[in-house]
Amino acid sequence: MTVIDSQTQMLLQDILRRERCSVLQYVAEAFPWTTSTETKSLASLQHLIAAEREAMIGLWQYMLRQRIRLPYLPSYPANFTTINFLAFDYVVPMLIEHQRQSIADLERDLAALKDPGVRAEIEKLLTVKRQHLLQLEALVSSQPQASLT
User: Fold this and answer.
1) How confident is the model at residue 36 (pLDDT cuts 50, 70, 90)?
2) Which 3 state secondary structure label does DSSP give 82?
3) Euclidean distance between CA atoms 10 and 70, whole angstroms
4) By C-alpha distance, which of 27, 5, 3, 18 is closest to 96?
5) Residue 5 above 50 pLDDT?
6) What fold, for 6-142?
7) Is 112 helix (H, G, I), strand (E, B) or coil?
8) pLDDT value at 122 more than 80
């Protein structure tokens, strides 16, 4: 086991805290409103959220193995409550934007990391998030468009 410097430890704690309190994770508990035609898409979204949670657990376990203190995980920001019970077709584009920002944040964090083991862990999370961005974009394109006539 290599010793991970305190700056890297703090960055890992920040990443875990940020990812745990993400909009995507909040939506798992926010119950987007769906029509009967969106039931399959909602199930896909829930599967995607669970997979991302598993990726975060992988980072959490890595931190434990490296004896890095886990961060305090606060509750979700209060402004997330405006997402509750919104229509699925409204929520997904918002999730795409947040996912893009999360990917950009992780890419910035990755550039600051020197330890190969830590970089590998963040690259795993980044790979999952990139795949999920594609899946979220596919959810939007698979939704029937509302008629304006």
Assistant:
1) confident
2) helix
3) 10
4) 27
5) yes
6) Ferritin (1.20.1260)
7) helix
8) yes
Instruction: Please give the single-letter amino acid code of residue 61.
Output: Q
Look at residue 30 in the predicted model and tell me its pLDDT. Answer: 84
Q: Which residues contact 18 (CB under 8 A, 6 or more apart)?
A: 102, 105
41-79 confidence digits (pLDDT tens): 889 999 999 999 999 999 999 999 999 999 998 999 999
Domain ranges of the chain: 6-142
Type of residue at 71: P
- Residue 103 token pair: 């990917």
**Vertex 72: Cα angle to 120 and 44 (nearest 5):** 60
Place of tokens 């949670």: 53
Please list, in sequence order, all residues whose beta carbon lies within 8 angstroms of the beta carbon of residue 127, skipping any fewer than 6 positions away: none
